[in-house]
Write a structure and sequence with these properties.
Layout: E1 2-3, H1 28-31, E2 53-57, H2 61-72, E3 77-81, H3 85-104, H4 110-118, E4 120-123, E5 134-137, H5 143-156, E6 162-165, H6 172-177, E7 185-190, E8 199-204, H7 210-222, E9 226-231, H8 238-254, H9 260-271, H10 277-284, H11 286-300, H12 309-316, E10 329-330
Parallel strand pairs: 2-3, 2-5, 3-4, 5-6, 6-7, 8-9
Antiparallel strand pairs: 1-10, 7-8
Length: 334
């Protein structure tokens, strides 16, 4: 990629992980092959169903990845819901492209693709989560949005349905308090790309029951993940460690200590990580990074978590990383 900026002239004021480029590529041609169900035509065949139905709210990068592993790895029926019909079509295209690549590389039998895709139904109506036994919310990382979704899910879903959030930093306890069944709420923090990354960080709210935790841990393993438990404090475990590290790399750039390329090269070769912090920031999304840092700074009250002013400016400019085409690198031609 082409470097956009090497340092900032601004005065110093001091989520999900490695993304697969191929996985995130949208193909409109493939999207036309699949028919997204509207709210009025939505239905799932309950006859001869051997697996519980998993609902996924939000068909972005994380949501489509969760839907894919739920169908492919665990053979669950899946309801993938998003308010945008276009986003649902794009997500199905990405899933299809991922599966086609698996077939090409010999990781999947061609006749399995139709079965995997057939288990994934789509809807634009949140009310269709009433058919789900386990719901995983993967909407935009905004507190007000997640609280509203969980308030609605508390009314819509079955009494025994478990409600999980894929939040990377927001209090799961606060989210649980917004529902009519807080003991059924838990955090399931997946990492991008979901089909590749092995970890699922499980976060218990104060209200989460033992049964909810046990069922969630079981589901994570069914999806092919290794689950690790974290207490419900700001950033949980991964982002409490990772985001300040990335933020400090941005601050090093901001102060002109090193260039984008040299920062990433130094950390890759000096610490043997597969990806430099500024490349990783572009994949995670600078808007997500900023939101997490603001939550850490607000809830923990320590200035070491204050977002770098350069991070703030990049987000204000709309340079959010790979998903916007620009970040610390130029991704527009990739």
């Amino acid at each position: 990629p082409t470097i956009i900026a090497q340092k900032s002239s601004f005065p110093h004021t001091t989520n999900t992980m490695l993304h697969s480029r191929r996985f995130l590529t949208s193909t409109s041609r493939l999207a036309s092959r699949f028919q997204c169900a509207s709210a009025s035509s939505f239905s799932i065949n309950q006859q001869n169903r051997n697996y519980a139905t998993v609902g996924v709210v939000g068909a972005g990068q994380m949501g489509l990845g969760i839907a894919l592993v739920a169908s492919k790895n665990a053979s669950h029926d899946v309801i993938l819901q998003d308010i945008s019909q276009d986003q649902l079509k794009k997500s199905l295209a990405v899933i299809q492209k991922t599966l086609a690549n698996d077939v090409k590389k010999g990781r999947l039998e061609e006749n399995a693709v139709q079965d995997i895709m057939g288990r994934i139904k789509t809807s634009t109506d949140l009310k269709d989560m009433g058919s789900a036994d386990f719901v995983i919310e993967a909407a935009t990382e905004r507190t007000d949005l997640k609280l509203k979704i969980f308030e609605d899910l508390g009314r819509i879903t079955k009494d025994d349905a478990i409600l999980a959030t894929n939040t990377s930093s927001i209090s799961v306890t606060k989210i649980a308090a917004a529902t009519s069944k807080p003991d059924k709420v838990i955090g399931m923090h997946f990492f991008n790309p979901v089909p590749v990354m092995q970890l699922c960080e499980v976060i218990r709210a104060l209200q989460t029951s033992d049964e909810t935790y046990q069922k969630t841990s079981k589901l994570a393993r069914e999806l092919g993940k290794v689950d690790a438990l974290s207490k419900d404090f700001a950033g949980f475990t991964v982002n409490r460690i990772l985001c300040p590290y990335i933020n400090e790399a941005i601050q090093v750039l901001h102060e002109g200590i090193a260039t984008v390329e040299d920062i990433d090269t130094t950390m890759k070769l000096g610490t043997n990580v597969p990806m430099g912090p500024l490349t990783l920031a572009d994949f995670v999304g600078l808007d997500t990074m900023l939101e997490v840092m603001r939550i850490l700074h607000s809830e923990l009250g320590d200035d070491k978590y204050r977002p770098s002013p350069l991070l703030v400016k990049y987000v204000e400019a709309g340079w959010w990383g790979k998903k916007s085409g620009k970040g610390f690198y130029d991704w527009s031609k990739k």
